[in-house]
Amino acid sequence: MSQVAQAPSSSAAVNNSKSRQPILRLVGIEKVYGTVTNPLTVLRDIKLEVQEGEYVAIIGPSGAGKSTMLNILGCLDRPTRGAYFLKGDDVAQMNDAQLSHIRKTRIGFVFQSFQLISHLSVLENVELPMFYARISKRQRRKKCMEIIERVGLGKRWKHRPNELSGGENQRAAIARALANDPAMILADEPTGNLDSATSTEIMSILHELHDSGRTIVLITHDQEIAAAAPRRVSLRDGQLDNDTHNQAPSATEVHP
Ligand code: ADP
Ligand code: MG
Question: What's the CA-to-centroid distance between 63 and ligand 2, angstroms?
């Protein structure tokens, strides 16, 4: 077996993300809606790299193109121009079946409006992605109950969405996003329908998922939530205009 790339142990933790392949790479992405005679350019020349294990907040005013960008990242939509590489694979070269497979296996989605199925229980909602992935009923139950416990819904698994609070619904939606163990969670305004105390609880679940190694891309227009993210990318009129990191001290800064 080959050795893991060698890095000086003292700076390995700091430089770890840099040595990895980006999980997401957008090059010159453009998205145009509308018609040929009346085009609406929503994203222009977006360049972005996200490393595996990063936690990035995309911020920007309403209409800036945040959801459009997240839909492209989640392979729910295709860009008009530009290239999108997901772990080095060119998404433009993939057919719809391949994109659907990626959505089911590599990405967990969390939306503002939860998007749970109303006539199914929490457990059944969480099981659904595993059902489509043809995982056996016994395995599904076991894994889903573990995930449901993990998001703090252990006593609510039998309930339907309309019997639960907004925060509980979002916990269930996060559990569903985790069902197929995706490397990346894409969340579009996940606290948009929640009060501030509940938002804090939901954000702490997302932070825990990040701590356990998942890549998180979160859309928010809440400055406080964005400020808690290690990296913030701001989108204005379809263009990225700022990319800020909470810098960990670099290897050189660590030395006196
Ligand atoms: P945000 O999430 O930042 O509020 P969106 O990405 O939803 O912004 O929308 C950006 C712009 O693109 C808006 O002007 C919106 O009206 C437009 N838009 C979004 N989706 C479509 C669509 N399917 N067809 C036409 N215009 C769209
Ligand atoms: Mg939006």
Answer: 7
C-alpha–C-alpha distance, residues 31 and 242, integer Å? 19
Residue 34 lies in a domain: no
Assess if residue 161 is contained within a domain: yes
What's the token pair of residue 150?
């993990």
Q: In the structure encoding, which two tokens stand for residue 172, read together?
A: 């269930």
CATH code of 205's domain? 3.40.50.300
Into how many domains does the chain fold? 1
87 is a domain residue: no
- Report helix, strand or coil for 85: strand
Residue-wise pLDDT for 45-80, tens only, equals 999 999 999 999 999 999 999 999 999 999 999 999
* Residue 68 in contact with ligand 1 by CB distance below 6 A: yes
Residues 48 and 233 sit within 8 Å (Cβ to Cβ) = yes
Q: Minimum-distance ligand to the CA of 61?
A: 1
Q: Give, rounded to a whole angstrom, the gap between the first and last alpha carbons of the chain.
A: 38
Q: Residue ranges of the chain with pLDDT lower than 50?
A: 1-15, 17-19, 249-256
Query: What residue numbers bound the domain in which 177 lies?
Result: 10-19+52-75+96-253
Place of tokens 């099981």: 127
66 lines ligand 1 (CB under 6 A): yes
Q: Residue 5: what pLDDT?
A: 39
Write the burial class of residue 195 (CB in 10 Å: 0-12 exposed, 13-18 middle, 19+ buried). exposed
User: Residue 42: CB within 6 Å of ligand 1?
Assistant: yes
At 103-122, the pLDDT tens digits run 999 999 999 999 999 999 99
DSSP state of 146: H
Q: pTM to 2 decimals? A: 0.87
Q: Is residue 206 part of a domain?
A: yes
